[in-house]
Design a protein that fits this description.
The complex is a heterodimer of chains A (69) and B (351). In chain A, 80% of the residues lie in helices and 0% in strands. Chain A is mainly α and 69 residues long. Chain A has one domain. In chain A, helix 1 packs across helix 2 and helix 1 packs parallel to helix 3. Chain A is flat. The N and C termini of chain A lie far apart (40 Å). The C terminus of chain A is likely disordered. Chain B is of the alpha+beta class. Chain B contains ten helices and twelve strands. In chain B, the strands form three sheets. In chain B, strands 3, 4, 5, 9 and 12 form a five-stranded antiparallel sheet that branches. A four-stranded antiparallel sheet of chain B has the order 1-2-11-10, with no helix packed on it. The C terminus of chain B is likely disordered. Classes of the chains: A mainly alpha (69), B alpha+beta (351). At the A-B interface, helix 1 and helix 2 of A face helix 6 and helix 7 of B.
Chain lengths: 69, 351
């Protein structure tokens, strides 16, 4: 149990680095011009909610090529 | 109103708010530490820190929970609401220090992993009075973390309002858990009956405030149920509305903010696009309805935020006849332009 939790958090932290730098811009255009402070602030949330955000990110990426907005 | 997210949209009022908050918290912690060190010279520094931050968090949690109903009862409390988010995040910070110190103090020096120890050191889950109180605090802390971590507007926009709202309603679950945590903790240690009493009083106050505010709102809603003519409802006299301000009325179950400004009257949906702030408690500033919570703005004529912003609220048809304001109870789609009603008819021949 504890190991599962630690794994979740570890993945979350790794994911959050990528997310605040790139993923956030993909799922929300307003984030593109976001400041560094903003990226730091959303980091903990990104690390905690990574499964949800991963799905959103993948969807946003696959959506860009097709006709669905 | 997001053209590029910032960490915090600072302005003078927010800085003042945060400075007051920091000062208050600092003073509380310093006083608590000084007094309890004097009263209780045998206590270790860690214990004092745990207690100071735990009670500090508890106190702030009460303030956070009281602000909502207080503002609905009396608009003079609105300045407190303005930056409630920072209050919440500060509260989480205090609780986190308390939790981490407790975890280290009571669970880090054994052979078991601290998190396992937290849940298993006391295993009397079948007892009410001896129920392990620390896991309750832990679960509360997890909820408070999720709320603090998602408090930025980015999360509101990307989780969606319903999810975000649901997440933040969990504060009431966290509060119940904290109450249980503190009461059980102090009962089991038999240290401080005063604390139990205070928590009880706090609980009664919070519940009473919510009940009274809810009841008042229900009474207001019932006031405007009837008297419709061709879809228009007589909501109030023009003079009931202060210039550059609004009156909030309920039409067809929806709250509507009826604004008076520049000799005109316009009506829009009362809920701000940002976090459902009560637009009708705001004012007209620079020709725009300005939300009292965080300052989002909307033009009264069409419910649109001025460019470059894109938020829109519903608009309503309005008429003024013989000093009475009539509003059609059906809303237009958000952002629909509606001609404002003139308070004094043009050329004022019939005035
Ligand atoms: C990981 C989470 C938590 C742990 C491990 C924890 C642990 C403890 C412990 C061991 C005590 C007894 C301290 C003593 O008697 O010296 C205590 C008391 C208390 N806790 Fe927590 N707690 C946690 C979360 C919270 C949270 C989230 C709050 C409030 C927002 C809170 C508020 C309090 C208060 C007000 C007391 C009573 C004052 C005191 O005796 O220190 N705790 N907690
Ligand atoms: S609720 Fe935040 S500005 Fe209206």
């Amino acid at each position: 149990m504890v190991h599962a939790f630690e794994l979740y958090v570890a993945i979350g932290i790794a994911f959050a680095v990528a997310f605040v730098l790139r993923g956030a811009n993909r799922i929300d255009p307003s984030a593109r011009t976001g400041t560094w402070g903003f990226r730091v602030l959303i980091f903990p949330g990104a690390a905690a909610l990574w499964p949800l955000l991963l799905v959103r990110w993948l969807r946003a990426d696959s959506g860009t090529g097709s006709e669905t907005p | 109103m997001s053209v590029g997210y910032q960490a915090v949209g600072w302005n003078r009022q927010k800085k003042l708010y945060d400075r007051t908050l920091a000062l208050g918290v600092g003073l509380y912690l310093a006083l608590f530490l000084a007094i309890s060190a004097a009263v209780n010279p045998n206590a270790t520094a860690e214990t004092l820190v745990i207690r100071a931050f735990g009670t500090g968090a508890l106190l702030l949690l009460h303030v956070v929970l009281a602000i909502g109903p207080l503002c609905r009862l009396d608009r003079r409390f609105l300045p407190l609401l303005y930056n409630r988010r920072h209050l919440g995040v500060t509260m989480f910070g205090l609780a986190l220090v308390h939790g981490l110190f407790s975890l280290v103090q009571f669970h880090a020096f054994g052979d078991t992993h601290p998190l396992v120890s937290l849940f298993t050191a006391n295993s009397r889950y079948d007892s009410l009075a001896w129920f392990p109180f620390q896991p309750l605090g832990f679960v509360a802390l997890v909820i408070l973390f999720l709320m603090a971590a998602t408090s930025h507007d980015f999360w509101l926009a990307n989780l969606g309002a319903p999810v975000w709202k649901a997440l933040h309603m969990l504060v009431y679950v966290a509060y119940s858990l904290v109450v249980a945590h503190v009461v059980l903790g102090s009962l089991q240690a038999e240290t401080c009956p005063l604390l139990t009493g205070l928590v009880g009083a706090g609980l009664v106050a919070i519940v009473a405030l919510h009940l009274v505010a809810g009841w008042r709102e229900r009474a207001l809603d019932a006031e405007h149920a009837g008297d419709a003519t061709d879809g228009f409802v007589d909501v109030c006299a023009v003079d009931d509305i202060e210039p550059e301000r609004a009156k909030i009325v309920t039409l067809g179950g929806e709250r509507v903010a009826v604004f008076r400004y520049d000799d005109k009257v316009s009506a829009v949906g009362n809920a701000c696009r940002h976090q459902n702030g009560p637009l009708g408690e705001g004012r007209i500033i620079d020709g725009c309805i300005t939300c009292p919570w965080h300052g989002y703005q909307y033009r009264p004529e069409d419910g649109c935020s001025p460019p470059p912003f894109t938020e829109k609220v519903p608009t309503y048809d309005v008429r003024v006849t013989r000093g009475r304001v009539l509003v059609r109870s059906e809303a237009h789609a958000p952002g629909t332009p509606v001609a404002p009603a003139q308070v004094h008819a043009m050329g004022s021949r019939d005035a």
